[in-house]
Amino acid sequence: MNSHTLSVLEYDKIKDIVIRFSASEPGRAVVAGLVPVVEREVVERLLSETRECMQLLAGGESLPLDGIKDIGQQIEKLQ
C-alpha cells in the first residue's frame, strides 16, 4: 500500500488511537510498527482470529491483559 493511500485512510491516526488503548509498552511498540497486510491468506487468518476474539468477548470472557510486564531486558540478558 502506498503512502498516499495510507495518508488518505489516516492510517497513522488510527494507529495512534490503538496505541492509547495498548496495555503495555511492548504492545504499543508492536502497534507502532504495524503495516497493512495485503496477502489474502494472511488477511483471512487475521480476520478469523479477530472473529474468535470478538466471540469470546461477546460471550462474557475477558482478556487478562492487566499485569503484562515488559521482560525485554531480561530476555536480552539471557541471550
Structural class: mainly alpha
Uncertain residue segments: none
Number of strands: 0
Q: What fraction, in percent, of the residue positions are helical? A: 55-70%
Oligomer: single chain
Question: In this structure, how is the largest beta sheet organized?
Answer: none
Mean pLDDT: 91
Overall 3D geometry? Answer: extended
Question: Roughly how many Å is the radius of gyration?
Answer: 16 Å
How many helices in DSSP terms? Answer: 5
SSE pattern, N- to C-terminal: HHHHH
Task: State which percent range the strand residues make up.
Answer: under 5%
- C-alpha end-to-end distance: 36 Å
Overview of the structural elements:
The chain is mainly alpha-helical. It has helices at 3-8, 11-21, 25-32, 40-58, 72-78. Helix 2 (11-21) runs antiparallel to helix 3. The longest helix is centred in the middle third of the chain and has 19 residues, at 40-58. It is extended and about 40 Å long. The mean pLDDT is 91.
Quick tags:
single chain, about 80 residues, mainly alpha, 5 helices, about 65% helix, about 0% strand
Give a short synopsis of this structure.
The chain has 79 residues and is an all-alpha fold. It has helices at residues 3-8, 11-21, 25-32, 40-58, 72-78. Helix 2 (11-21) packs antiparallel against helix 3.
SSE arrangement:
Elements: H1 3-8, H2 11-21, H3 25-32, H4 40-58, H5 72-78
